[in-house]
Amino acid sequence: MTKNYKILAKFIKDMSSETPDAETYMYVKDNIGRYQLGIDINSKAIKSRLIEINTSIKFHDKEQNVKKSIFEFVYTSIVQIDENLKDKKILEKIVLVDVQKDIYENIEKTLINLLHNSGYPAIKIEKKIDFESLYKKNIK
After folding, report:
1. Helical packing angle, 131-138 and 99-117, nearest 10°
2. What does the pLDDT read at residue 20?
3. 3-class DSSP state for residue 133?
4. Are strands 5-18 and 70-81 parallel, antiparallel or unpaired?
5. Which range marks the domain in which residue 44 is found?
6. Domains in the chain: how many in total?
7. What is the full DSSP assignment across 47-72?
8. pLDDT value of position 33
9. What is the CATH number of the domain that holds 53?
10. What is residue 118's DSSP assignment?
């Protein structure tokens, strides 16, 4: 199957690691196993057949703890869509599934590097994000 899109550029648009103090760092280091990964994908047309896709990743504690760190970044992809593509459902799947699969390795490396460089070297990503399943679950 031929792709009806081409990724022209990929880059980190924004990145943040927030740990307010050493006491919080020590607390988070002991409790980072409770942290969860959140993902949000949005897109906007740049010009005809060119789309900016922003994949926002947030790794944080959803509990209402006073002591917590936040790790987040926005990974941007500039995508050119085939001029023959007219179906909006196919375009939606390209944005939410196909491009995400193509950039997943970069997203995972960026998150791991952010966590390691923020002082949490033992963190590993055990479970891969299944964009296809997420898409199918949300289109019903």
Report:
1. 120
2. 94
3. helix
4. antiparallel
5. 5-138
6. 1
7. ETTEEEEEEEEEEE--S--SS--EEE
8. 86
9. 3.10.420.10
10. T
Computed on alpha carbons and rounded to an integer, the radius of gyration of the chain in Å comes to: 17
Distance between CA atoms of residues 86 and 116, nearest Å = 43
Sheet bearing 36-47, strands edge to edge: 5-18, 70-81, 50-60, 36-47
87: DSSP letter: -
Residue 8 tokens read as 């022209």
Do the beta carbons of residue 118 and residue 71 sit within 8 Å?
yes
Burial of 128 per CB tally in 10 Å (0-12, 13-18, 19+) = exposed
- DSSP annotation of 32 reads G
Encoding tokens for residue 58?
């947030």
CA atoms within 13 A on the CB side of 131: 19
pTM of the complete model: 0.89
Locus of tokens 């959803």:
62
Q: Which two tokens stand for residue 111?
A: 């998150």
Positions of the chain with pLDDT under 50: none
